[in-house]
Amino acid sequence: MHGELNGELKRGLSSGLGIEHSGVSRTSLRLTEHGDEFVTALVHLRERAGSASWGDDGLFGAFVAAYNRSALTAVEAYAHLGGNVAGHGDALSVASRRVSDAEGDAGRQIAAAADEAGLTWA
Q1: pTM (2 decimals)?
Q2: Taxonomically, which superkingdom (predicted)?
Q3: Model confidence at 3, in pLDDT bands (50, 70, 90)?
Q4: How far apart are CA 89 and CA 67, in angstroms?
Q5: Distance (Å, rounded) from C-alpha 42 to C-alpha 53?
Q6: SS3 for the chain, per residue?
Q7: C-alpha 25 chain-centroid distance
Q8: Which of 30, 35, 60, 115 is most exposed, with the fewest beta carbons within 10 Å of its own?
């Protein structure tokens, strides 16, 4: 049974099932860049938000003030969203590195266990 289990684990590790780390790295980089671009694009919107004026401080003044507050709130929410996208890209990169390290450690432990006599359970 030990030989069968060990062989099955080795086949599973070499069967191509798992994370394709170069693709994950490219995707994490694109997410980080996209989030940064998103935040940068909002600079122009942030400059314009809150400055709406239709030349009337009378009846429409309250509506203009409410619109300006709403526009500023939306821009800040979009900026937060862009930061989250970039943060997810960074986290995906870290996760890929950790999985790669864990795969390497597991492979070394399995190879070492195959050389030991008897069953080894961790």
Answers
A1: 0.55
A2: Bacteria
A3: very low
A4: 33
A5: 20
A6: CHHHHHHHHHHHHHCCCCCCHHHHHHHHHHHHHHHHHHHHHHHHHHHHCCCCCCCCCCCCHHHHHHHHHHHHHHHHHHHHHHHHHHHHHHHHHHHHHHHHHHHHHHHHHHHHHHHCCCCCCC
A7: 11
A8: 115
Q: Is 117 exposed, middle or buried (0-12, 13-18, 19+ CB in 10 A)?
A: exposed
Q: Where are the domains of the chain?
A: 20-102
Tokens 């080894």 appear where? Answer: 120
Question: Using CA atoms, how far apart are residues 34 and 91, in angstroms rounded to an integer?
Answer: 14
Q: What is the pLDDT of residues 67-96, one digit of tens each?
A: 888 888 888 888 888 888 888 888 888 988
